[in-house]
Amino acid sequence: MKNTTMVRDLPEQERPREKLIAHGVETLSNAELLAILLRVGTKNVSVLHVAENLLSLYKDSGLSSIVKLAPAQLSEIAGVGPAKAATILAAIELGRRIAQEPFYQKTAVTTPDDAARYIMPRLRYETKENFAIILLNVKNQILSFKIISVGILNASLVHPREVFEEALKNAASSIILTHNHPSGDPKPSSEDIATTHRLVKAGQIMGINVVDHIIVGNNKYISLKEQGLMD
């Protein structure tokens, strides 16, 4: 017995691929988008049902949880398998890279929100803390983005020498500090604040302004500058 209506049994205008072509990709639900990537279901289960099952497994943590799955984990879901898992993860990675593209070189960072939108696709899904810097020119345009350390943020992992070496190498006028909290909560710890103060002071000596420290969580961020925690 079939678990649900098969896609081929739907009116043509309601099938995900035809709906995308006729009305645009933005009109599709998450399940319909996944169904297009999966292409086919199983003998008795619609591809839409497979997509819905996949999403239901992560309903509490959200769609972004799929990003953190290893190919083998995704392959174990009924109706997915290695080939489909590879397709889904490749599509996600393309989306992440596209999200990063517009900010290179000529984008000016004038607010914490500008910085957070640039950082979010780079660090949001990391499962370990990544400490990085955004290097800016005199017009506050992005020169580069550099990962400085990976691991729990502390003074031993983030040394001013490494931070400002990158700034000097790229002739940066100023920098923005940033790191992620894999827990999803961007609230700064005492170590976060202490490390920030240390780097601000080092920047003053080097003549390179530390503009802000942005901590990103699960689709949210905190600016230490906005919180009055930079000094």
Please, could you describe this protein's structure?
This is DNA repair protein RadC. The protein has 231 residues and is α+β, with helices and mostly antiparallel strands. It has two domains: 7-100; 104-223, Cytidine Deaminase, domain 2 (3-Layer(aba) Sandwich). It has eight helices and five strands. A hairpin with a 5-residue loop joins strand 1 (130-136) and strand 2. The model has no long low-confidence stretch (mean pLDDT 85).
Question: What number is the mean pLDDT?
Answer: 85
Gross geometry = elongated
Indicate the low-confidence ranges by residue numbers: none
Order of helices and strands: HHHHHHEEHEHEE
